[in-house]
Amino acid sequence: MISPLTALGVSAPILAAPMAGGPSTPALVTAAARANGLGFLAGGYKPADALAEQIAAVRAEGVGFGVNLFAPNPIPVDPESFRRYARTITPEARPYGIDVLSAGIVEDDDHWSDKIDLLLSDPVPVVSFTFGIPQAAVIAALRAAGTLVIQTVTSPAEAHQAVEAGADLLTVQASAAGGHSGTLTPRHLPAFIPLPELVRQVRQAVSAPLIGAGGLATSAAVSAALRAGAAAVMVGTVLLRADEAGTSHPHRAALADPVRRETVVTRAFTGRPARALRNHFTDRYTALAPAGYPALHHLTGPLRRAAAAAGDPERINLWAGTGYRHATAEPAAQILRRLIP
């Protein structure tokens, strides 16, 4: 096991991934810790005060935990492409009374500075980053505050950059992962490389401890990642139906729906590559969506929220990795323990 995490009381090599947008609740993070692993609060899409409330809730349980942030790595959207896409998806939004044509281009940084200030003034045990690599000074400040820093990478080249910036550990994310890819070059779809092979490639490139992630849903898959050189693994999709997860009802139902037999990598919802179950929206708009994050995320957000509230699985982002068939409705601790080789 990774010695820095062992010092935090982590004795099982299975970590619960941060899943922004609702699934990663304080209860799920706590359950992962009580299963001798580690869970991560998802700081993405939250203002600092909301994140602080979740941190306080987990701290009250007396367990170790981590916080994940989206590091700024925007994909500026072409204005005309943005307006064209808004016109294209108008038929999907109209039944919900949403006017996407009047939406402006929002290019924010997800409250980055406020959340870094929070984590420096009130340090947590572990902070992980995805989408981009923070400035070395930010990483150094967190480490000086006693925080372990983990960086998501998707290639050996990214691993080199993360180590040079000062990250303590690396999460090696394969393209089989559900939700957004952590790639630093999101205008290009990441190559499909099996996780064990990607871990071996990164292991040859850097000496930092590695956490394998992407498509892991069985003990055999976990074992393969560990044999390849990962000191631990991180799982997400397999926990989406867990009792403690905050996953929406239509998303939970879709994961269990035998009719859904495929995942795809799409920009249709957010303008950034992400793996999801196929549905009407991915089928119709994947090929039409421009690159542009967070502009497309903000454009489609009202539609996705309305569709989720209405129980409509065809117009929401059904994030899922390739192992989604193994997601089960039961306590998270049982799911995590079953994955230990």
UniProtKB/TrEMBL annotation:
UniProt entry keywords in alphabetical sequence: Detoxification, Flavoprotein, FMN, Monooxygenase, Oxidoreductase, Signal
- Coiled-coil annotated spans: none
Instruction: Output one GO MF annotation.
Output: nitronate monooxygenase activity
Q: Superkingdom of this entry's organism?
A: Bacteria
Catalytic function, reaction form: 3 propionate 3-nitronate + 3 O2 + H2O = 3 3-oxopropanoate + 2 nitrate + nitrite + H2O2 + 3 H(+)
So which cofactors does this thing need?
Answer: FMN
CDD domains, per this entry? Answer: NPD_like
According to its UniProt entry, one GO biological process term is: response to toxic substance
Q: Name one Pfam family in it.
A: NMO
The signal peptide, as residue positions, is 1-16
The record's family statement is: Belongs to the nitronate monooxygenase family. NMO class I subfamily.
Protein name as annotated: Propionate 3-nitronate monooxygenase
Tell me which species this is from.
Nonomuraea glycinis
Which lineage?
A: Bacteria, Bacillati, Actinomycetota, Actinomycetes, Streptosporangiales
